[in-house]
Automatic annotation (TrEMBL):
SMART domains: AAA. One of its GO terms (molecular function) is ATP hydrolysis activity. SUPFAM superfamilies: P-loop containing nucleoside triphosphate hydrolases. It comes from [Actinomadura] parvosata subsp. kistnae. This is Nitrate/sulfonate/bicarbonate ABC transporter ATP-binding protein. It holds the Pfam family ABC_tran. Gene3D superfamilies: P-loop containing nucleotide triphosphate hydrolases.
């Protein structure tokens, strides 16, 4: 579904070039959930922007669904740290925004928008304005806005980082359900190792800038996963500990597979 081959990204600047990514190879299978972690500035957002078609790689190849990514695609949605809702539009109208942008018939998508709001527990708020909602509720609206276009790929750049711990956990559980129901391929950038392990099939660790793949940790734990007491808690904790070690030590763990999916 997503393929990056030998991808490098260099930004030009007045103080000289900044090499954000170097020779990155990654294959994300259809329906897979990948988390990307790494030190601040290692190129995580750059990686998402390349997949989203918001940026063209300096060298290398980026493909989605077998096609080279040359511009943003309608079947790829991206969600950022802040919900970025339009303050003068109701919740429902914010969710329907991509429908208008793409010139799709609004009436046909209204029912879908209502269903999405229902799914995240916000149907009774559909006439409200964004400022009447909490941060977590606003981020749920942003999630519905991303899902209205029925994306095959959902890219998320630290979507829950501005939220309190309990809301984050709640949204993480909802996101897993959505992922299972919609079967979208998800790439999540996060600073939280626990969140990465809770959500992802594989956690990709980037090296400090220039970002390259340091290691990939597989999380072989059935879904839905929660952080409470359950049979798999020890497995999740082991994956978290491994990632903390890798990121703390900034060194590769011998014997890890590379980022090519073992489909
Ligand atoms: N448009 C740009 N022009 C110049 N440099 C850029 C640009 N975008 C990103 N960079 C640089 O590329 C590097 C990687 O940035 P990026 O935002 O991808 O990192 P990140 O891992 O997402 O960081 P963080 O975890 O802090 O959000 C940084 O050094 C950043 O300053």
């Amino acid at each position: 579904m997503i393929l990056l081959r030998e991808v490098s990204q260099v930004f030009g600047g007045r103080r000289g070039a900044v090499e954000a990514l170097r020779g990155l190879d990654l294959h994300v299978a259809d329906g897979e959930f990948i988390a990307v972690v790494g030190r601040s500035g290692c190129g995580k957002s750059t990686l998402l922007r390349l997949i989203a078609g918001l940026l063209t790689a300096t060298s290398g190849e980026v493909r989605v669904g077998g096609e080279p990514v040359v511009k943003p695609r309608r079947d790829v949605a991206i969600m950022f740290q802040r919900p970025a809702l339009l303050p003068w539009r109701s919740v429902l109208d914010n969710v329907l925004l991509p429908v208008e942008i793409f010139g799709w018939p609004r009436q046909e998508h209204r029912a879908h928008a209502h269903r999405l709001l229902e799914m995240v527990g916000l149907e009774s708020f559909h006439r409200r304005l964004p400022h009447e909602l909490s941060g977590g509720m606003q981020q749920r609206v942003a999630l519905c806005r991303a899902l209205i276009q029925r994306p095959r790929v959902l890219l998320m750049d630290e979507p829950f980082s501005a939220l309190d711990a309990l809301t984050r956990e709640e949204l993480s559980v909802e996101l897993q359900q959505i992922h299972m129901e919609h079967a979208a391929t998800v790439v999540l950038v996060t600073h939280s190792i626990e969140e990465a392990v809770l959500l992802a099939d594989r956690v990709v660790v980037l090296t400090p800038r220039p970002g390259r793949i340091l290691t990939v940790v597989n999380v072989d734990v059935p879904r839905p996963r929660t952080l409470g007491r359950h049979a798999w808690a020890a497995d999740l904790a082991r994956c978290s500990a491994e990632l903390h070690d890798v990121l703390g030590a900034r060194r590769a763990v011998p014997g890890r597979q590379d980022a090519t999916s073992a489909e």
